[in-house]
Amino acid sequence: MTKxxxxxxxxxxxxxxxxxxxxxxxxxxxxxxKIPSILGTPALDSMPGYFAAAVLxxxxxxxxxxxxxxxxALTAGFPLTVPxxxxxxxxxxxxxxxxxxxxxxxxxxxxxxxxxxxxxVGAPASMIPIMGVGxxxxxxxxxxxxxxxxxxxxxxxxxxxxxKMVVRGHENA
Length: 173
Prior knowledge:
Helix content is about 75%, strand content about 0%. By secondary structure, it is mainly alpha-helical. The radius of gyration is 16 Å and the shape is globular. Keywords: Membrane, Transmembrane, Transmembrane helix. It comes from Formimonas warabiya. One of its GO terms (molecular function) is transmembrane transporter activity. InterPro entries: ECF_trnsprt_substrate-spec.
């Protein structure tokens, strides 16, 4: 197996893993900064995932955002059950992946708007068949606020000059 097939040098893989781990750790911190709601799960947990999606790539961002949601659900006691929170985590990952793609390929403002609507309206709307329309309406405002805060903060951080080089580990950033 060549270095290219293995994903790069061992040092590159370790650095990538450390970057992801640090952003997951920030998600854990964000999971404890809650936006008031009936469930206690909207939080600032996905900002590191959205940031990673914009700076490192969609796969990394999706993983970090999904794990961030699971930590938030854990701190709230999995109020919607573990299977529903696993589905929600998958939706968070998709939202972060879409954000990262749009952030890099289009205007960042378009990415912010679309990801906020996907995360704040689309994801909870997908739960209507499971949880009912009442839960959707009860969560709509807190999820839109949390989504907007997470995504806007991530976009602002990702646009800081030189941040990509620092996060990606370039020596002379």
